[in-house]
Structure formats: structure tokens, C-alpha cells
UniProtKB/TrEMBL annotation, chain A:
InterPro entries documented for this protein: ABC_transp_permease, LivM-like
Taxonomy of the source species: Bacteria, Bacillati, Bacillota, Clostridia, Lachnospirales
PANTHER family the UniProt entry points to: HIGH-AFFINITY BRANCHED-CHAIN AMINO ACID TRANSPORT PROTEIN BRAE, HIGH-AFFINITY BRANCHED-CHAIN AMINO ACID TRANSPORT SYSTEM PERMEASE
Record membrane topology: Multi-pass membrane protein
Keyword Transmembrane helix: yes
GO cellular component, one term: plasma membrane
Protein name, per record: Amino acid/amide ABC transporter membrane protein 2 (HAAT family)
Signal peptide: none
TM regions (residue ranges): 53-72, 103-122, 129-147, 176-196, 226-250, 262-288, 295-313
Record has Ion transport as a keyword: no
From TrEMBL, chain B:
Gene Ontology MF term list: ATP binding; ATP hydrolysis activity; L-isoleucine transmembrane transporter activity; L-phenylalanine transmembrane transporter activity; L-valine transmembrane transporter activity
Species for this entry: Lacrimispora xylanisolvens
Recorded GO CC terms: plasma membrane
Protein's recorded name: Amino acid/amide ABC transporter ATP-binding protein 1 (HAAT family)
Keyword Cell membrane in annotation: no
InterPro entries: AAA+_ATPase, ABC_AA/LPS_Transport, ABC_transporter-like_ATP-bd, BCA_ABC_TP_C, P-loop_NTPase
Length: 349, 262
């Protein structure tokens, strides 16, 4: 009991309860900020960096489902990003499909490959799984490089059209692309939030916590591991499709091993198994090379130092705390508990 | 009795390569009984549990539970049939809250689909609320309601054991397999545990127990089966077992020696 009381005075508890009390207000402020941001800065370079952060936050959200919740570390997520980006770009360039169907096809393709990668790796965990996924990332890169008739080989796909809504092209210059990316990012975030608080999310976390115990609770571990692969792949593919239209071209080297490690670093730096962490992780790791340009090549040293220091002093990630607030009950549950309590009191009286 | 037993195990055998871990073990449990399996370390008790719950394949023999043959069925199937277990070394989901642990126990009874939860349909909300209320009710009944928001790893040892049992109950099981629930408990805690298992019996649960703590076993068991080196050596009422020479030789003798050492 004393323990719980002490926790109530902790900074974390105060902070979290402040946020949860003012949740609506803070969300409105955030939405207003995001809406007004492009109008107020109106700087293409700055907006491009912000959009890149949002796309990488989506990569993080995708990998987080697999690594953060299910505990399966993937070193090849650039592969899923590449599948999404290539499929969507090729559909748009060669078949002339518009952006949204192309993106959906990219997600479907990545999801199917997710099943294919998930099935043989079911028995693998830890380092062994990481090595297989590492190989997967390289295989996708090799396919993109050598399947020339479709992927155009090392030359890549050029002139990827910008998404269009009602005939209006969405670009960074007219802020359309910014809003599109933000909307998709919000959809992904809500999807993840909803996922976590459902039996699916609990099953994934249970598998991470203790696989044998999960099996003994009747959880179909095979199904949920593959589901985690598929969801993770789909989110990364959607973000990949956005990324491709953002930069306008893709080639096999756009999605190399560095991208995989960057995505994993976002997840680890921000805080594995949290959603908030993905935004901070992406913001830091994407902003870092931009703000430290004056350091020239040494900026990669800074990048390394940050990760090492973080692993030493805060291995759970910057925002990787466990919530100190009570488990959130729905309004109906709270009401029914209250009526039950008064009835009990009445019975005793 | 043989045909209407709740759980009827006939001649199950498990071999690991050349080693026979469990050989021709048979036992029966009727509804509402507390039955213990005892035996020295390495006798094969946990192997029996692992066969019952589908972790290991059964090489020979049959397991009939609630009128259905369940040997070599998938763990999920067995849990759904109404048998659930705890572990010798506590295996809670440590990073999750107490109530979430119970909700995971209720996983197989939660039937809303992935789409229901993604779009937060009425079906999802109704069922999730129901399961949360049931989880709170269950925690209340085991005396852990005040800790429902805590993370499982922050609970004291005795409460972790209780939570593990609560999680097993949440699956809707009628038969609870408890693997050394009193391990590592002090006398006061095992006393509490004994009362707790008795209360489970009163609520109509059937309990199969593996236990080393003789005071617990002798006090709460209706019947006891003894195995040694994977083979059944005796079974009967607690009094009979306590006076059985073969058992004393194989097992209880060791306990007396331990007691002297302490």
C-alpha cells in the first residue's frame, strides 16, 4: 500500500494524470498546431523534414507491433517498406492507378509476404529470427535490383506521381502531401491504440511475456505471430508508398540495411511497446542528421554515441515507461461497479 | 466410477529418447475432488502435467477428460475443454497488469473478432465490458481486487501464485492443475494457500495438485497418487499414503531427513 501511495506522488504519475485529465484539450491543441504548422512556416525544406518524420514514425509504429508488442526483433523491415513502395509506385507509373488503390495493393503485397516470412520463422526467436529477417531484407533488395523487367533494376522507378484528390495534386508546396501524410499517420496511430486494448493486443503482449504460458491460456500463438507480421508489414508498406511519392523515385538502395536499423533504432530509442515513443524516436533520429550538418561526417559518430548512451542509461527507451495510472475502465464498467457497490451496501444495511 | 470420472488417465507413458520419464501412470479424478500427485524430485510429476495439457505428446495410453479423449490434442483444445494449469516456477505476464493477466486467461472465452475490436463495434464494447467486470469479480473472489491495477511483477510471491490460479480459472476451466503452488512459501503463506484451495473446492472446482509440502498435501487431498522414477507406486487416502512403507521409503523418508537438517 505504501508503495502505491508513494507512486501517486511520483513525477510520472502527476504527469500522466495531467495528460489524461486534459486529454481533450491537449488533442485539440495538437490538432490545431498540426493544421497551422505548414501555413505558419511555409518552408518547403522544413515541411519535407516534418513529413519524413511522420513517415518514419509510421515505420516505427509498424515495427513496434512486431518488436515492441510481440517481442520479435526484425532487422529487415526495410524489405516490407520496399515492397510497399515498389508495388505502389509501379502500379502508379506502369498501370496508371491512382495513389490510394496503389497503396492498398502495396499493403496487400506486403501482407502476403508477411505471411510467407512469418510461417517459416515461427519457431525462431531472438537472434535467430533477427538473422532470418536480416536475410529477408537483403533478398528483397536483390529482387528489386535484378528483376529488371518489372522493377527496372538498379535504375529504379522514376517520376512517381504525387497523389491526387479530386484532380488536385498533393505536393509539399501546396501542403497537400503534408496533410495526407498526417491523416494517414493519425489513422495508423488510432489503429495501434485500438489494437493494444483488445484481446489481440493482449495476446501479442502475452506472447512476448511468456510464450509457453500463452499457449497454456489457449492462445493460438501461430496465428497471432503471423498476424503481427502481417499488420506490421501492412503499416510499413503504407508508409513506404507515401515515402515513394514524397521523394519521387525509388531504387534498390533506397531501402537498404541502414533503413532497417534506423527503423529499429526509432523503436528502441523511443520506447519499445509504446506508441508515444515512435513519434519521439522518429523526430530525434530524423532531425539529428539535419541539425548536425555542421558536424559533417562526424554526425554519424554523434548518432552512435546517442544510441550507446541511451542503451547504458535508459534501455527501456526515452518514453518507455509503464503507465502508473490505473487500468482504464470504460464508463459502462465504472457505472456498473458503482451500482453493484451501492447494492452491496444496501444489502448489508 | 471408472466411466464417469471427470478425468481418467490410463497407462500414459512418455519417453525422451531412451529415457522413460513416465511409465504406465494411471489415475482418476471425480468432479469436486482435490487429488494430489506426489513423488520425489524428478519422479515425472511435471511431465504428467505437460502431457495432460498438451505440451508433450503422449507415447502410450489415453486421457479421457469430461468424456472426451484429449491425449495429443492441441493445448488450445484442451483449455477449451475445461482444463487449465499453473506452473512450478510462476509464469505470469510480468509486464502486464493484474487485471490484464486475468483478461488473457479469458482470451478463449472472448469471441469478438479482430474487425470488431478495430472498429470498436457494439459487440466489442459489450463483450469487453463483460469480461472486465468478470475479471474484477474473479479478482475479488481471490482477494486481489485492490491490486488489479498493479503490474504482476510488483505483487508479493503469495499473491502471484493466487493470480496465476485466478488466470487459470478465467479460462472457464473446471479442472485446475496446480504445479507445486506452495513452493517457496513460508508456513503462513502455505496455510493461506490451503484455505484458498479448499475454498476453490467449495466453489465446485476440481483440483489436481503436485506438491512437495506434505502438510498441504495431507491436509487438503481427498486422494493421493504417488509416483517414483516415472512409475506409479501407490495410491489411496492421505492416511494410507502416510503409512505406506514403499512411499515412506521412496519419498517421505527423504522429507524426514530434510526436516532434521533444517
Amino acid at each position: 500500500m505504501t508503495n502505491t501511495r508513494m507512486e501517486k506522488h511520483s513525477f510520472l504519475y502527476q504527469f500522466e494524470s495531467f495528460i489524461s485529465k486534459n486529454q481533450k484539450l491537449l488533442l485539440i491543441l495538437l490538432a490545431a498546431f498540426l493544421c497551422l504548422l505548414p501555413k505558419s512556416v511555409n518552408n518547403q525544406y522544413f515541411l519535407t523534414v516534418i513529413v519524413k518524420m511522420a513517415v518514419y514514425a509510421m515505420f516505427g509504429l509498424g515495427l513496434n507491433i512486431l518488436t515492441g508488442y510481440t517481442g520479435l526483433v526484425s532487422l529487415g523491415h526495410a524489405g516490407f517498406v520496399a515492397i510497399g513502395a515498389y508495388t505502389a509506385s509501379l502500379c502508379a507509373v506502369k498501370l496508371g492507378l491512382s495513389f490510394f488503390p496503389s497503396m492498398l495493393l502495396g499493403m496487400v503485397a506486403a501482407g502476403l509476404v508477411g505471411i510467407l516470412l512469418g510461417l517459416p520463422t515461427l519457431r525462431l526467436t531472438g537472434t535467430y529470427l533477427s538473422i532470418v529477417t536480416l536475410g529477408f531484407g537483403e533478398i528483397i533488395k536483390m529482387i528489386a535490383m535484378n528483376w529488371s523487367p518489372v522493377t527496372n533494376g538498379t535504375l529504379g522507378v522514376k517520376n512517381i506521381p504525387k497523389p491526387a484528390v479530386f484532380g488536385m495534386k498533393l505536393t509539399i508546396a501546396n501542403h497537400g502531401l503534408y496533410y495526407l501524410v498526417m491523416i494517414i499517420l493519425i489513422v495508423c496511430t488510432v489503429f495501434c491504440l485500438v489494437l493494444v486494448k483488445s484481446k489481440t493486443g493482449r495476446a501479442l503482449q502475452a506472447i512476448k511475456g511468456d510464450e509457453l504460458a500463452s499457449v497454456m491460456m489457449g492462445i493460438n500463438v501461430t496465428y497471432y505471430k503471423i498476424l503481427a507480421f502481417v499488420l506490421s508489414a501492412c503499416i510499413c508498406a503504407a508508409a513506404g508508398a507515401l515515402y515513394a511519392t514524397l521523394i519521387g523515385y525509388v531504387d534498390p538502395n533506397t531501402f537498404n540495411f541502414d533503413v532497417s536499423t534506423l527503423i529499429l533504432s526509432i523503436v528502441i530509442l523511443g520506447g519499445m511497446g509504446t506508441i508515444r515513443g515512435m513519434f519521439l524516436g522518429a523526430a530525434i533520429l530524423i532531425a539529428l542528421p539535419e541539425v548536425s550538418r555542421f558536424l559533417m561526417v562526424y554526425r554519424f559518430v554523434l548518432y552512435g554515441v546517442i544510441l550507446v548512451v541511451m542503451m547504458r542509461f535508459r534501455p527501456q527507451g526515452i518514453l518507455g515507461w509503464k503507465s502508473q495510472l490505473p487500468y482504464k475502465l470504460s464508463r459502462q464498467v465504472v457505472e456498473r461497479l458503482k451500482t453493484a457497490e451501492t447494492e452491496e451496501a444496501g444489502d448489508n444495511g | 466410477m471408472a466411466d464417469n470420472a471427470y478425468l481418467s488417465v490410463k497407462g500414459i507413458t512418455k519417453r525422451f529418447g531412451g529415457i522413460v520419464a513416465v511409465e504406465q501412470v494411471s489415475f482418476e479424478i471425480n468432479k469436486g475432488e482435490v487429488v494430489s500427485i506426489i513423488g520425489p524430485n524428478g519422479a515425472g510429476k511435471t511431465t504428467v502435467f505437460n502431457m495432460l495439457t498438451g505440451v508433450y505428446q503422449v507415447d502410450e495410453g489415453t486421457i479421457v477428460f469430461n468424456g472426451e479423449e484429449i491425449q495429443n490434442k492441441k493445448p488450445k483444445h484442451i483449455v477449451m475443454a475445461g482444463m487449465s494449469r499453473t506452473f512450478q516456477n510462476i509464469r505470469l505476464f510480468q509486464d502486464m497488469r493484474v487485471i490484464e493477466n486475468v483478461l488473457i486467461g479469458a482470451h478463449i472465452k472472448t469471441s469478438y473478432s479482430f474487425l470488431d475490436s478495430t472498429f470498436r463495434t457494439a459487440r466489442y464494447r459489450k463483450e469487453e465490458d463483460e469480461k472486465v467486470l468478470q475479471a474484477i469479480e474473479l479478482l475479488k473472489s481471490v482477494g486481489l481486487e485492490h491490486r488489479k491495477d498493479d503490474y504482476a511483477s510488483n505483487l508479493p510471491y503469495g499473491d502471484q501464485r493466487k493470480l496465476e490460479i485466478a488466470r487459470a480459472i478465467a479460462t472457464g476451466a473446471g479442472l485446475l492443475l496446480l504445479d507445486e503452488p506452495a513452493a517457496g512459501m513460508n508456513p503462513k503463506e502455505s496455510e493461506e494457500l490451503m484455505l484458498f484451495i479448499r475454498s476453490l473446492k467449495q466453489k465446485g472446482y476440481t483440483v489436481l495438485l503436485i506438491e512437495h509440502d506434505m502438510s498441504v498435501v495431507m491436509n487438503i487431498s481427498d486422494r493421493i497418487y504417488v509416483i517414483d522414477h516415472g512409475k506409479p507406486i501407490a495410491h489411496g487416502l492421505p492416511v494410507e499414503i502416510a503409512n505406506n512403507e514403499r512411499v515412506i521409503e521412496a519419498y517421505l523418508g527423504g522429507v524426514h531427513k530434510d526436516a532434521e537438517d533444517n
